[in-house]
Amino acid sequence: MLDGLLLASILLPMLGALAMGLLAPLGDEAVRRGALAVALATLAASTTLVANYPANGAEAGAFATVVRLSGEGAPIDVRFHVALDGLGLWMFALAPVLLVTSILASWRAIADRTAMFHGMLLLLTGGCLGVFTARDIMLFYVFFEFTLIPLFFLIGIWGSEERRYAAIKFFLFTLAGSLLTFLGLLAIVVWDFRESGGPTMQFSLDALNTGLRSHPLPEHWQTWIFLALFAGFAVKVPLFPLHTWLPLAHVQAPTAGSVFLAGILLKIGTYGFLRFCLPMLPAAAAALMPAMLWLALLGVVYGALVALAQRDIKRLIAYSSVSHMGFCVMGIFALNPLGIQGGVLQMLNHGISTGALFALVGMLYERYHTRRIEDLSGLCRRVPWLAFFMVLFTLSSIGLPGLNGFAGEFLILIGMFQRAFGESASDSTASLKIVSVLAVSGVVLGAWYMLWMVQRVFFGPLREPESGKDAEQGAIADLSWRERWALMPLAALALWIGLYPAYFLNRMAPDLERVSAEAEDVARSRYAPIEYRAERPGLDRRPTEESSWETLTRVD
Amino acid sequence: MDRIGPLLVVIPAAPLISAVAIALLAPRLLRGIREFPAFLTIAAFGVSLIASLLLLREVTYHHDHVGPGSPSFERVVRLWTWADARDAYWQRPALPSDDPRAESPIEGGSRDFTIDIALRADALTATMLVMVTFISTLVAVFGMGYMQGDRGFWRFFAYVSLFVFSMTMLVSASNFLLLFVFWEAVGLCSYLLIGFWYGKPSAASAGKKAFLVNRVGDFGFALGLFLIWTTYGTLDFHSSARVRSDDGGSERRILDSLTTVPAGATGVAWGVLSRDAESYRHGAIGLAICLLLLVGACGKSAQFPLHVWLPDAMEGPTPVSALIHAATMVTAGIYMIARCTPLFTASPEAQVVVACVGGFTALLAALIALTQFDLKRVLAYSTVSQLGYMFLALGAGTFAGVTSGMFHLFTHAFFKALLFLGSGSVMHAMGNVIDMRRFGGLRKVMPITHWTFLIGCLALAGLPPFAGFWSKDAILGAVHDRAHALSGAHAAHDATNLAAHGRERADDGGTRVVEPGEGVWTLWTPEQAAGVYQWLYCAALLTAGLTALYTFRAFFMTFYGARQIPPEAGGHAHESPAVMTAPLVVLAVCAVSVGWFLDHSYQSDPSYLPGGRASSGNVLGDFLGYAPQLAGGAIAATRTPGRFHFDVAAISALIALGGIAFAAFLYLEDRREADMASAFLRFHWYRRMLDADSIARIRRWKSVDAVNRWADRLRLGWLARIVGRGVLVVVWVVTVPLILTQFASPYRLSQDKFYFDEIYDWTMVRPLRWIADLCAALDRWVIDGTVNMVGRIPVVTGNLMRSLHIGLLPFYAVSMALGVLVLVLARTLWGS
Fold it and tell me: Which residues of A touch B107 (CB under 8 A)?
């Protein structure tokens, strides 16, 4: 029953997109309602699945649907295989939530070609759900590229002034990277085919994982393939210095596009690292770990600094995304359980808080037709609900304890410190200590630019631009109930994750552990100080419970 | 039936419920009932206060029943598990102890990352809880009168309730993560309340400044926390054991005190603050942890160099200044360092740093407070200064030091809250004017405020028998004793200790001295540290005098002199209503009595508690001695029978009296002396010599005039002019530095707060902004430019190729033939 539901939750928005075309003659309002209904149905399906997800993880993925796309003895074995596991679980859960938010937030903003707009939005959601559940390399890549198309149109048609330039830049940038990624993925498949000696070329993730465990790629091959995958994923994340498409795309995109771009699409990059680089290229992941950590740090600090210099709220939040996604990559490449769990949790957190922030900026823009910080001041008095949500998500974004951002950042940093000061405290990785300490400074900078923006825009004496809705419709109205409902689920999630992250961590931890175990072991042996190498536990053995507790020698 | 668990939950829960209920109900549903938020808040705080007192009673009860074998008591209650990652951290096994790199043995193996939402009850927590809930109840009552008619009435009480929730959680948290969470949460409440009147730009920016400066402190705190995790493999204060449960699995069980390891435990994870004294790290990593924690404490408790936010925080409503920025939140740093005593005793260098930070801040803030005209800012700097005293006490690092710091925290809360509420009462009557130059002689107008304020001032100045005297004397005595103990003046005493504890001294090249009771000195010798403590003692005495001076300066300027009332008061300046004066009276009674009520060292001979431990002669000190962090380990070894330092007390009381007298001389009735003093300190005499008038006067001197005329007659006027100008240049060159020093004159330095804000602005804030702008430009032109250039490659190559497509068939044919030729040639030349 639930197995079918997973397939249904992916197909539902896709079919819904087609239905938008049928609803179009009934008028914009009908289209919006229809899209909202589809979104809520998808949300219900995905929530049911997440609620029923086995608490101790599912290695082969839960709720699987497998359809063989090639004949029994065919030389190529490509399948339509979707299943849910701990890596994609929370992004899978978040996408429908953000879909609902997007539809509600663009209720009034989009009046042009409404049916097409909502169709694109639904297609995008379907694609994203597919990416995070695909268990076949070919299927993953199809979904991976498919997500580009609806977003390209969303930016190109409903964007701001420079939308065409932004859309093309976004499309070409990501496409260029992902072609290299495809090459890398194919190389993995071909290697497995050559070494396994079987008659069929396997594209299934499970088969490849088992295959590569018995005949791993040689290290120099791993490095090259890692770099190829990096090209696509790093552009998606985006990692410094491949991030320049992001602020442009964000600023030009319509609100819904920004919400989805920040909330879901960027995470495909980090998800890719987790899904492919760690389990399939463990040696390369361990070898390139210091470089990746430095890149992530550069992203964190550089993104924060550039955000500090921005005068446009949306650009500021876009650069804050660069900074926060740097944190995600840092967590993943700390290559220890806390860091990786934190990194994945931060993917979810960033989706929630940045998605909400973009939606809020959209609502602000709808009212004042400006996003320049110096045009606005003291709006707290005029739009208290908007200000409340803005402050709430700002605090969540800067990692205030009790809200979601803190849980992720804390785990990432503690994992990073473990990496730098505990597990590999040898001379070869002394520079990682600098990384870990500077990374914490990213948190301070984050507080600075976000609070600066909030203080300027919402506090102080009231000042509104002349060219608002003011002239036409009288005073600016506060958030309507529709807009409040768009944000409340995100606020509830932010609070939930902040107060009880264990719920989220426990469900993904076992799978993350399986995925990263090998890379962790390689890293541990590679970077351990010489005098400890003899004593480290074997590659195949995680520390057992007996060894994990100090024996009772000090009872007094 | 154990009541500690429910009590621990009720204490924070009541304010939380109040905050949520106010936020949900007050703006809409119950808008008609104006007073609803205030009454709900007061009721909730009252419940918390009663629960805290009951908790205190429970803890005392347990103290009376602890056996001599376990001198400490703690009870930890787990609510839920925040995060739980098994085998998250594989620690390297300990190096053999003869390995030179092994600073101290740390157990190896893997660690679970388990963070419980766990609350604790022990002496430290109970003390803090009683103090916090008591002050907040009184402040809520005061606030009901003070905030009357403000359009943010309900918002105020919602924030204050949220704050009290966070603060009670902060002091009852039992792991570093939870401590950090509520550390930030009180910071958030402070941010919200400083910026309460957000329409005022100064309030909004003061809120942001407080948050950011605190973030810098939290940056250090977080680093310290991460290092604690990587070093000790846990973040819990308490120890816990893994026990096999009935169903075959294993569960974690919290150990309530060091000795109660349950039967069937498979292993014990020792908490960061409840392990054997020998297992603490000395050396660089231990020192780093302590200093980073100190940075966090400096941020929250407004110590140098992070003290700049507190005076600006006075933009918030005055009850908030009393509650958050004087009595409770700013003492969180003191609480944290007192709680982390085991870590600090393990690295005495860190304690010296703590003491230096405290002593320096105390003096610095007192100097600034001397010249401020804003009554609340004077009090704010005085808070910074008194917090410095507490840091100094903690830095003394002995049992007496830590307990006297906590004692001062306790007494200070009462009289400083009293002073702030008194200033709020003045402000209320004066129509929100707080500049002391604009009002005066209010003692007849506001008699109750006047008398209670006087009591607060006497307590702050430290005159016997007011509360501040006892705690200040305890601090001075502790620092004094520490200096003496280190310098070897107590050699005889040490010798007995040496015999008693079998202490071993391991000299390592004369610099590394290991003494279990004293920690490990690596950077300095104990004698050098003794000198530092001696200096700090003198600085503290000087500060005591300055404290009396600025306190009574403010008091005389406000309540004495010619009666002067600003027009903002609206011509009906009067005493505040009973709802505001009643808390003042209660606090005044406390400010008089709480000192001698708790401190009996002057009347009792050194005595011993059950279990053979020395009594400090101070009820609070003895009580705190049951907290696990103070009961065992190195700190317990420094425990000596308490004695009253008559010499120290006499000196400090005399100095304080002198300060009051000087203040009376300068500011009582006639303020001309004050003008003279400031004129002198501003180099007025010197500047007067350089202004245009005096130069003209010099010109009119007969001799100068004669020389000029004589030179003119000899047609040598040009020479005279050149000489004159030369002299002028020389004079300017000599005097410019002196003119510049008018900014550096003691008075201006004090008035302008030693230019800390400006220095930070120019060395940190602006450069960072510049770097940010640079990065933004770099991003736009260099990085994106490169990307665009790469993007142009296909276009450019395409254009190149296009020029070949000229459409002439013969050209294509020729090129094809050429191509074939090249291929054939290549094949024949290099063969297969």
Answer: 550
What 3-state class would DSSP assign to A465? coil
Binary contact (B82, A410; C-beta < 8 A)? no
Question: CB of B261 within 8 A of CB of B199?
Answer: no
Backbone angles phi, psi at B236, to 5 degrees: -75, 145
* Contact (CB<8Å) A547/B185: no
The vertex-B192 CA angle with B186 and B195, nearest 5°, equals: 135
Q: Do B628 and B257 form a contact (C-beta atoms < 8 A)? A: yes
Chain A, nearest residue to B242 by Cα: A549
Measured distance CA(A269)–CA(A245) in Å, rounded: 14
Residues B822 and B803 in one domain: yes
A305, closest residue in chain B (CA to CA): B772
**pLDDT tens profile A104-158:** 988 888 888 888 889 999 999 999 999 999 989 999 999 998 988 899 999 888 8
Indicate the residue type of B687. Answer: R
- Domain end: B677, B708, B726, which one? B677
What are the tokens at A359? 């939606």
**Same domain, yes or no, for B662 and B734?**
no
In a domain, B279, yes or no: no
For residue range A428-460, list pLDDT tens digits in order. Answer: 667 888 888 889 888 888 888 888 888 888 887
Give A-chain residues touching B268 at CB under 8 angstroms.
549-550, 552, 554-555
All residues of chain A having their beta carbon less than 8 Å from the beta carbon of residue B222 are 413, 440, 443
* pLDDT tens column, B215-255: 888 889 999 999 888 888 888 888 887 777 766 666 677 77
Q: Is B149 on the interface with A (CB under 8 A)?
A: no
pLDDT tens-digit readout, A507-549 = 888 888 888 888 888 887 777 655 544 444 443 334 444 433 4
Does B653 share its domain with B672? yes
Using an 8 Å CB-CB cutoff, list chain A residues near B91.
422
Q: Are residues B375 and B334 in the same domain?
A: no
Q: Residue A422: which of B91, B783, B787 has the nearest Cβ?
A: B91
Q: Which of A455, A505, A555 sits opposite B208 (nearest CB)?
A: A455
Q: At what angle do helices B375-396 and B332-339 cross, to 10 degrees?
A: 0
The per-residue pLDDT for A556 is: 37
CA A343 – CA A345 distance, rounded (Å): 5
User: Bridge-partner residues for B90, per DSSP?
Assistant: B110
Q: Which structural domain range is residue B707 located in?
A: 683-744
The minimal CB distance from A308 to the residues B112, B208, B772 is found for: B772
Q: Distance (Å, rounded) from C-alpha A411 to C-alpha A417?
A: 10
Domain count, chain B: 4
| Structure token pair of residue B347 | 């690295």
User: Which residues in chain B are contacts of A337 at CB distance < 8 A?
Assistant: 85, 87-88, 113
Q: Does B197 touch chain A (CB under 8 A)?
A: no
Instruction: Give me the interface pTM, i.e. the ipTM.
Output: 0.84
Q: Are residues B351 and B396 in the same domain?
A: yes
B42 shares its domain with B179: yes
Smallest Cα–Cα separation from A102: which of A88, A126, A123, A118? A118
Task: Identify all chain A residues contacting B227, using CB atoms and an 8 Å cutoff.
Answer: 417, 421
The answer to the question of residue B34 being in a domain is yes
Decide the pairing of beta strands A201-202 and A76-77.
parallel
Instruction: Report CB contact under 8 Å: B91, A173.
Output: no
Contact assignment for B109 to A543 by CB distance below 8 Å: yes
Average pLDDT in the B201-205 region? 82
CA-based nearest distance A306→chain B, Å: 5
Contacts with B215 from chain A: Cβ below 8 Å: 443-444, 447-448
Same domain as B402, residue B533: yes
Cis peptide before B100 (omega within 30 of 0): no
Averaged pLDDT, B805-818:
86
SS3 content of chain A, % helix, strand, coil (to 5): 75, 5, 20
